[in-house]
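So, could you explain the following?
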Amino acid sequence: QERIPERGETKEAMTFASVLRNPVYARREALYDLHPPKGFLHRTEQKNELVMELAPILMGSVVPCVFVYGNPGTGKTGLVTNLLQELEAEAQKQNITLKTLYVNCSENRTETIILLEILNQLNPERNYPKMGWTRAKVLAEFNKELEHHQHVLIVLDEIDYVLREEGDDILYRLSRLHNGNGKKNPKTATVSTIIISNDVRVGDYIKPRTNSTIGRVRIIFPPYNHVQLHDILRERAGSAFKTGVISPAVLKKVA
């Protein structure tokens, strides 16, 4: 007696050739791209807030700290990194030397490792080690490296990992470099900071001494509702799949 296939099974084995004969994707990467093909939908308010807060960098000022927070999947990292590209392009037009750095703190969870990652991005030719250096040596090298730059913008993503496990030393350190009153050392770069957190209670992990020195700008990314998710899915599906593969009813059901 022929065995009835389990759910999800097919009687006929698939081959790569059979898949290629019936492609459903036009550009599969569009489903997963950090930066959507046609820009970020339903995030104009947050983008405008970020533009207003970061614009002073183009005027030679310091942005002590901008907090960006919201649940995972609300577009925080994608929008911020996209704006970094726009900011760098505008700085180049204005003949401003700006270096933007991005550090994922879920992979770099201590102050020393974060500073080493920043050093590797500031001076990639040096190839700093991930281990073996004391905090004092890393700090000395960090301060020395800043003397070779004009303006630096550091993004610390998923900072909640560090705050919960190691404390807020890295935030305090960066806030003390430049407190918004201009350069403490004219030979040292201005350092601005953006903090991204998936934990809306991120403020609970920051000590009063640090709170008194960092900026108080908070930009919230609220969860998308089903109507907004449908718009996002429809746009990505339109770029990812061939015409007629996904019906409007399916997109509404998924949203």
About this structure: Residues 76-93 form the longest helix (18 residues).
